[in-house]
Write a structure and sequence with these properties.
Layout: H1 11-31, H2 41-49, H3 60-72, H4 93-105, H5 117-133, E1 140-144, H6 147-161, E2 170-175, H7 181-188, E3 196-199, H8 209-221, E4 225-232, H9 244-253, E5 257-262, E6 286-290, H10 291-294, E7 302-306, H11 359-368, H12 371-393, E8 398-400, E9 408-413, H13 421-438, E10 444-448, E11 451-457, H14 465-490
Bound molecules: pyridoxal-5'-phosphate.
The site of pyridoxal-5'-phosphate has 14 residues, from helix 6.
Protein name: Pyridoxal-dependent decarboxylase
Pfam families: Pyridoxal_deC (PF00282)
Family: Belongs to the group II decarboxylase family.
Length: 491
């Protein structure tokens, strides 16, 4: 069994084994023409259940053969130009290379003595991101597992910085289109069920700042305490960007923490054409970025950035066996400012302890492609969304919501002959399901004003307007068939 341990004596076995795995995936990618096979849970579950985990195959080739059946053949492939559903991106090769390196070396980024250079690389990328945002010289941050964790940590800091310790009095303001992790975080942080005040959006699905101002004023008048305003820079459903400069002004006026959830929109930080859409983000006290959404990075790769490094002390706890007090460097300038002889332990800034070296993927990406290279890919999908909107707007079969700022299109099939809104909802739901079952394309669904809509989240620069047009035809076909069957039935 020791021959399976990765070490100096098994380097050759490692090379062969991983190479074989890479070969399988490469073949799969080269021959997969659809995003999905349409397999159902009922078909696949028995295949997985039938495997006896207590009877190992003993050899990687056999395990890879088996993996074809339980996973690889029927996986959902985001690299397919017709995968248009959720905020999943195709990944860039330098990042996948980074992933292979980081899992083999297996650094853990909690302390310097488990990572060394890994810690410095992560800190450089945090500084680089903070600089792109414009957070100023005292900024800092840390990589996280995803936007959900980044938002939780940002709101933890905001809670600790708030002007009261009476949790029942704290209020968080975010738009009705903000991510559900805001609500989840509020609960985890011990705030009451009323803590998150939902601010209405305008026609473009951006937070109405007049309503925000009114709610902040009402909060103050009622003797409550504004804990944070969460602006979303790229809502999950519409890609809409809240008016950051106006929100910053109000946050300043009411002396409250401003968090920008740029989990989706962070790709604009490197966009040669669209960086201005994030103007105002530099006023934030904290920012969430998901490199695994718009930087074409494999899951997971995310970070939370803060304007004032000192606020990260709210995540600092000590253990004698890990990061004893003398090594702590609360509020010290980031790596570029010099370490002043202190030992950099990233665990002092993180909610996690053992932590992946996800930063390496972004590092490899920037070293191979450069920031502009990543930003151009994101610009391409935003351009594609704009073209897709034109298609939808000109198509009498479809109703399309807001013109996209990023790369999302929300639309629904509207038959000419049918007026029953429930039937139209069902036709759209059916079309999505039938498309998924066919495996020809994958699209998402959402609700707008209580009605069923469909959604394209475009993150693949290989997707073309022809793909979009073809998928719209497929959806219309499924919806028409459904209506045909159900109208005959009704009459
Ligand atoms: C995806 C998303 C999140 C959550 O990020 P995860 O990485 O999935 O945890 C938070 N906010 C917004 C706006 C998102 O789109």
């Amino acid at each position: 069994m020791r021959s399976h341990l990765l070490n100096d004596m098994t380097a050759e076995r490692y090379r062969r084994s991983v190479t074989e795995g890479v070969e399988r995936v490469a073949n799969r990618l080269a021959t997969t023409r659809r995003p999905f096979t349409g397999v159902t849970p009922d078909e696949l579950a028995p295949v997985v259940s039938a495997i006896d985990l207590d009877r190992p195959l003993g050899d990687a080739s056999a395990a890879l053969d088996e993996l074809e059946d339980v996973y690889l053949r029927d996986a959902v492939y985001f690299h397919s130009p017709r995968y248009l559903a959720h905020l999943n991106c195709p990944v860039v090769i330098p990042a996948v290379l980074g992933e292979a390196v980081l899992s083999a070396v297996n650094s853990s980024l909690d302390t310097w003595d488990q990572s060394a250079g890994g810690t410095l690389i992560e800190r450089r990328l945090i500084d680089w991101t903070a600089q792109r945002i414009g957070l100023g010289p005292a900024a800092d941050g840390v990589f996280t597992s995803g936007g959900t964790q980044s938002n939780l940590q940002a709101l933890l800091l905001a809670r600790q910085e708030a002007k009261t310790t009476d949790l029942a009095k704290l209020r968080i303001f975010s738009s009705e289109c903000s991510h559900f992790s805001v609500q989840k975080s509020a609960t985890l942080l011990g705030l009451g069920p009323e803590a998150v005040v939902s601010i209405p959006v305008d026609r473009d699905k951006r937070m109405q700042t007049v309503a925000l101002a009114a709610e902040l004023e009402r909060c103050r008048a009622e003797g409550l305490v504004p804990m944070a305003v969460v602006a979303t820079a790229g809502t999950t459903d519409f890609g809409s960007i809240d008016p950051l400069p106006e929100i910053a002004e109000l946050a300043g006026l009411y002396e409250t923490w401003m968090h920008v959830d740029a989990a989706y929109g962070c790709g604009l930080l490197v966009s040669p054409a669209r960086r201005h859409l994030l103007d105002g983000i530099e006023h934030a006290d904290s920012v969430t970025v998901d490199y695994h959404k718009s930087f074409f990075q494999p899951v997971s790769s995310s970070a939370v950035l803060v304007r004032d490094a000192a606020t990260l002390r709210h995540a600092t706890y000590h253990a004698d066996y890990l990061n004893p007090r003398p090594t702590v460097e609360v509020g010290a300038p980031p790596a570029s400012g010099g370490l002043r002889g202190r030992i950099p332990n990233q665990v002092d800034k993180s909610l996690q302890t053992t932590r992946r070296f996800d930063a390496l993927k972004l590092w490899m990406t920037l070293r191979v492609m450069g920031a502009d290279g990543v930003g151009q890919l994101f610009d391409e999908v935003c351009d594609l969304a704009a073209a897709g909107w034109e298609l939808l707007a000109a198509d009498p079969r479809y109703d399309v919501v807001v013109r996209p700022q990023l790369s999302t299109l929300v639309y629904r099939y509207i038959p000419r002959s049918v007026t029953d809104p429930v039937l139209i909802d069902r036709a759209n739901l059916h079309a999505r399901k039938a498309l998924f079952a066919s495996g020809e394309a994958v699209v998402a669904g959402t609700k707008v004003g209580g009605r069923q809509y469909l959604k394209f989240t475009l993150l693949n620069p290989e997707t073309t307007t022809e793909d979009i047009a073809a998928v719209l035809d497929l959806i219309a076909g499924h919806a028409e068939q459904f209506l045909g069957e159900n109208l005959v039935h009704a009459s």
